[in-house]
Amino acid sequence: MSARVSDPAADGETGAGPFERLLALVEDDLARVTGLIRERMSSEHASRIPEISAHLIEAGGKRLRPILTLAASRLCGYQGSDHIKLATTVEFIHTATLLHDDVVDESGKRRGRATANILWDNKSSVLVGDYLFARAFQLMVETGSLEVLRILSDASAVIAEGEVLQLTTAHDLSTDLARYDQVIRGKTAALFAAATEVGGVISDAEPQKVAALRTYGDGLGMAFQLADDLLDYGGSTAALGKNTGDDFREGKVTLPIILAHARGDQAARDFWTRTIARGKQEPGDLDQALAYLAETDALADARKAARGHADRALAALAQFPEGETRTALEDIAEFVVARAV
Amino acid sequence: MSARVSDPAADGETGAGPFERLLALVEDDLARVTGLIRERMSSEHASRIPEISAHLIEAGGKRLRPILTLAASRLCGYQGSDHIKLATTVEFIHTATLLHDDVVDESGKRRGRATANILWDNKSSVLVGDYLFARAFQLMVETGSLEVLRILSDASAVIAEGEVLQLTTAHDLSTDLARYDQVIRGKTAALFAAATEVGGVISDAEPQKVAALRTYGDGLGMAFQLADDLLDYGGSTAALGKNTGDDFREGKVTLPIILAHARGDQAARDFWTRTIARGKQEPGDLDQALAYLAETDALADARKAARGHADRALAALAQFPEGETRTALEDIAEFVVARAV
Q1: Nearest Cβ partner of A164 from B46, B104, B140?
Q2: Exposure on the CB side of residue A9, measured as CA atoms within 13 A
Q3: pLDDT tens sequence across A120-170
Q4: In this structure, is residue A9 part of a structural domain?
Q5: Which residues does A288 contact at the CB level (< 8 Å), separation at least 6?
Q6: Number of domains present in the structure of chain A
Q7: Over the Cα atoms of chain B, what is R_g?
Q8: DSSP E strands: which ranges in B70-209?
């Protein structure tokens, strides 16, 4: 499976993989999205805004989220041009959350480049994020769809709520599965689900198809984030743009840790308490953590959880006609899980 | 005029002043707004959100912005209940900008209390602000008015743009009047204008009345911020909740400084370059600054500018029928300028 180990939403090798096949279907639309992004992130008065947002938007992210909006509207046979505005909206909201996340995580790297808050400062990251968020809502207003505004303002609330919740789960070994689900839904799945759902909404698709697109996005996003959390205990730096063990060193309580802690003996629980809850780590601890994760089947069961979400995403697509768009969306769901194997 | 020196939007003495008379007209509605604020700032999953937002929302701000929305809809004879949602929206957007401003300014005090980012941390301030912003858009969606969404997403973009612009004007003595106007419009007038305009929009007021309400809010907001900038060179700590000379010490380039710098002789210009542009200040510099501001008529002319914006606000009200609401709104415009005399 090594040929598939690559992150569809971050820098990495290219090739005729499933992401590239999906991209090829919406390539012309995506070029229009790129043009609209450049046009709308500009500011008549504050030249610092496009400097900072361009840094992030042009940094080589693969634009998975706007591509999902374009593909969903294609799956519904949409003929208008509002999907361009909505895909741009989705990318602006994503970029705004990255900018705000850079501030909050004090992370030094994002997509392999220095983050905005290192190159500029916290102030600019917060305010440029706010600007992109406002521009996103302006674009939605232009589509004239209150339903789209409802879906994406709901998603924005879930995203912010999940991020706040994540602050309180770090180092907290009492984090349960429901809370972890809420965190990763806010972190990833809420925007994936909104991105695909609005593609159906502007296409005037039947309600059950709109619901299916939402389920697909949610399942794909949950699987994607579970895989991301898994890769932190096994992926290579090249594949993810971050180092194995980063989450461990930061004391993040992800599904593998929750499972290994719950299933461990007293020695294991003492180990997790010291390294994660108290954050006291020594050389060799990451290897010990990997050993505990393997012997408690924590990694295997986290993989099964990701597989379950991907299966939910695949089942939701079944009511759409067969064809290249549906196949490409199915392949992406498979790919997201496969990369974490 | 000393009895009038008080800030209508911040802590301070109360009494039967113009603010209290306006408040009395919408008191019942404001109680409903307070109830809705409490209901909507709660979070099912993240208890930290209401902790932080309540800290700011309950801190005793006088809620001038939501009161303006309530008064504007009252002036138009509005009979529905969407004005409660919109007033709550306006307060949420204001609170979100305060939370983000706390992060960016690294200020230690807001409304006389420690700011959220001291009591909690930068992370929480950013994310809780994002949450309130998302909740604000959800409330607008509930009103079903795309026009309201357009007005407040436009205002949000102007606010963020103005804040970014402000970052680049600090210590920059080449800041001109147009740029200063853009900064204070983003800082204050954009949300005032949107707050009054949406009151007219939900009332289905005629277009010229909606435009007049927008002009009133803009004029009031510009006058308010000009007065605020003036008070920093003459107000008392009790009246403003901040100390005379704070802007000077932070190197903020406000209208009084722009005028005094442009009109000063070589000695004066060297003084401003050292104290504002280079930020090198010594004991006695504030007194010297006040002397330069007085002898170049900078303070007097900044007061005239505030007066001009207030007059614009008053003129806009002329097309509404005379009555207690119009009178109260007129008195507030007078009051905002009078406090800076």
Answers
A1: B46
A2: 20
A3: 677 788 999 999 999 999 999 999 999 999 999 999 999 999 998 988 888
A4: no
A5: A271
A6: 1
A7: 20
A8: 109-110, 113-114
Q: With contact defined as beta carbons under 8 Å apart, do A140 and A221 qualify? A: no
ipTM for the predicted complex comes to 0.89
pLDDT digits (tens, 9 = 90+) for B2-27: 333 334 444 344 457 999 999 999 99
Whether residue B334 lies inside any domain: the answer is yes
A117 close to A125: Cβ distance less than 8 angstroms: yes
Query: Which residue range(s) make up the domain with B27?
Result: 16-338
Token reading at B246 = 């704070």
In a domain, residue A10? The reply is: no
Tell me the HSE value of A23 on the side-chain side, using a 13 A CA sphere.
14
Cβ of A156 and B49 within 8 Å?
A: no
To the nearest whole Å, the CA of B263 is away from the closest chain A CA by: 26
Q: For an interface test with A, which of B49, B53, B102, B126 has the most A Cβ atoms less than 10 Å from its Cβ?
A: B126
Q: What DSSP assignment string belongs to A27-63? A: HHHHHHHHHHHHHHT--SS-THHHHHHHHHHTS----
Do the domain assignments include residue A2?
Answer: no
Distance CA B264, CA B293 (A): 9
pTM of structure = 0.90
A-B contacts (CB, under 8 Å) = 146
Chain A positions touching B97 (Cβ under 8 A) are 130
Q: What is the CATH number of the domain that holds B89?
A: 1.10.600.10
Put simply, the answer to whether B153 touches A163 (Cβ < 8 Å) is no
